[in-house]
Amino acid sequence: REVVDHTGLGGTFDFTLRWTPDQSPVGMLQGATSSNLNADAAAATNQSAPSIFTALEEQLGLKLEPTKGPVDVRVIDHIERPTEN
Fold first, then answer.
1. pLDDT (tens digit per residue) in 40-76
2. How far apart are CA 62 and CA 8, in angstroms?
3. Confidence band (pLDDT; 50, 70, 90) for 25?
4. Pick the residue with more confidence: 35 or 71?
5. Which end of the chain is more exposed for a tag (fewer CB within 10 A), N or C?
6. d(Cα 45, Cα 21) in Å, to the nearest integer?
7. Whole-angstrom distance, CA of residue 2 vs CA of residue 50
8. How many CB atoms lie within 10 A of CB 19?
9. Half-sphere exposure of 63 (CA within 13 A, CB side)
């Protein structure tokens, strides 16, 4: 899902968030990039850590709330193979 910042906070922040990644097959596919695999693996060793949602609320005072709203969508309505030179 797309996350929209409604905090009104500006600037750059440096913090450490302790959480256990979602171990479900869908959760493992979402957000699994090479930059966060090491962090995910380290957090997975601590199964007592809370979920990402609980960690955000308890450790940072932020809450993710599902809402409905407009999102940017790209629609490809036609495609052709390039012609040979």
1. 555 445 568 899 999 999 999 999 999 998 888 899 9
2. 12
3. low
4. 71
5. C
6. 10
7. 22
8. 19
9. 3
